[in-house]
Amino acid sequence: MESLSNKKKVLEVKPLNFMERAYLPAIVSGLATTMKHFFKKPVTISYPEEKREFSENFRGMHSLKRDENGKERCTACGLCALSCPAEAITMTAAERQPGEENLYREEKYAAVYEINMLRCIFCGLCEEACPKEAIYLDGDIVPADYLRKDFIYGKDKLVEAPLNQ
Amino acid sequence: MSTFYFIAFLSIFFSILVITAKNPVHSILYLILTFFTFTVHYILLNAQFLAVVNFIVYMGAILVLFLYTLMLINLNKESEPVKPFMVKIAGVFGGGILAVALASSLKLVATSNPVILKNPDLGLVKNLGKVLFNEFLLPFEVSSILLLSAMVGAVLLATKDPKTAS
Amino acid sequence: MGSTADILIKIGLILIIFVISLVMAMYSTYAERKVAAFFQDRIGPNRAGPWGLLQPLADGGKLFLKEEIIPTNATPFLFIVGPSLAILTACIGSAVIPWGQKMTIGSHVVDLQVTDINVGVLYIFGVVSLGVYGVMIGGWASNNKYSLLGAIRAASQNISYEISMGLSIIALLMLTGTLSLREIAEQQHSWHWNIIRQPLGFILFIVCAFAETNRTPFDLPECETELVGGYHTEYSSMKMGFYLFAEYINMFISSAVMATLYWGSYNYPGMDWMNNLLGPTWGPLFGFAVLFFKILVFIFFFMWVRWTIPRFRYDQLMDLGWKILIPLAIANIVLTGIGSTLLTHFGY
Hints:
The complex is a heterotrimer. Chain A is an alpha+beta fold. Chain A is built from 5 helices and 5 strands. In chain A, the strands form 2 sheets. Chain A has a 3-stranded antiparallel β-sheet with strand order 2-3-5. A two-stranded antiparallel sheet of chain A has the order 1-4. The radius of gyration of chain A is 28 Å and the shape is elongated. The relative contact order of chain A is 0.18. In chain C, 69% of the residues lie in helices and 2% in strands. In chain C, α1 (4-39) packs across α11. Chains in contact: A-C, B-C.
């Protein structure tokens, strides 16, 4: 068929000349190539000891934020759970009791907040959905574990450390 | 001497196993053992070169090829051809003739000298080479022609006839 | 010969060589992985011990503790005989290799060679040709089509390359005039290495050595892409380990043979001066170190080639063996004959 674009190249398969058929020169040049790599610096990053820097928009483990006074921002509105395409988030809301004002910012707070890290796809939609800027995926890679139940992270692992500690 | 009797017993034992083994591959493996005992016999006779050649050529090459062919053919019990009665008769007849020939040839042999070599180092490579290339030069070269003709014959058998191929 | 001390020394030597072969095999697995890693710009095993040096022990422990599986349809006896034969034939090859000059310890003269039989080269050759039985028997006894195909490939490959290997050795023997490895080693005193007189023979020999040890580019018997695992598909646990060990010991022995036959064994330029300096005990030991260094270089070369050249196709393998190597080997014999006759004629 005629080429319309004129970009068609006809490749010729030439018979090998003697040097190519002798095979040994090709082997020697191949050996030279591998030897060059032998002295190159390895590109490996030995992971747990050395860590590669994350990019700025990397999304890792979730953290539940506190405000400038160290109170939990989350009001258990459930928008994150609603927006989650993987159904990974669940929570139970509770009313703030008198005397707990220094712990929770609003009158309602999440008594239980769980994320199933095996379901989570780290899309960041919860981050976007949150009206209180309470959840961010700014953590590290979620570590490996042996049991499925250990991948359901509760508030103990998710909430940021208090300010004064 | 007792070593000789032990090894000789082993050779006969394994060669009986070769013909009685049901599985052809087992039979070949026994044949390998038989040849190994032959190698030991050669060493006992101080024929190191023959021993090693027997080791390389028979054990290392020919029997590998035997095993190779046997592994390629599917030797199930079902596919084993039933031999006609006449073939069995012919087999028995042939074997009988061989036995008679062997017996008569044994009768001709007078009590030979006990195996004492005149030159115990005859089996070493150097002496063997000298004997082969001086006294027995002609038979040695003739046998090489024999091998060559066998090779040519094998190549002829392997190549297809151009008339039938086309 | 005959005194108790001599016998004890001999037994000790055998044990030392045996242990060295096994340790070499163990650390070859480690070296293989490290070398592969370096060639691919990686680091390689580095978790077990410093720089991963305990990795072979960990691997060995793992192999020992794995479950032994003998397939239901396998022939149990032959299934066990296969790997045992493989490692046996791999180990007995080291018996005739001269590891060094005669060494004097106190009043004893120690011969650093287990036995000097006058057909040493042929013995090595015989042991190598016997090595294929381990693979064949194991592959057949597994009762698995992949194992069987691997075994068949191993057999035909070994037989094909044995011929050119033998022919290349014949050219060398025409020059040395002896089959004893000790004498061949002694002839290469100082810098008179056989590689100078037999360069083509050496290339042929090393190609055949690759094929005989089933190393890449000739590792078709265990070709993963086509045959799952080749002849050891059905093997597990230490029986599998034996096959792997046998491969590495074979590599070690064939490196030793190459160093002995072509690269001057324990000889090195300036060895007389060095022997005078070090005395009759440490001089030969230094020679042994030199031989060992050569062996290590060859093992490294085996690995270097493995991580450079891809596997041959089977018909290419056969073409190379029968149509290229054998004619070349015969030409080498003829050339060697003409060359040595001319040299003798003109009085060299």
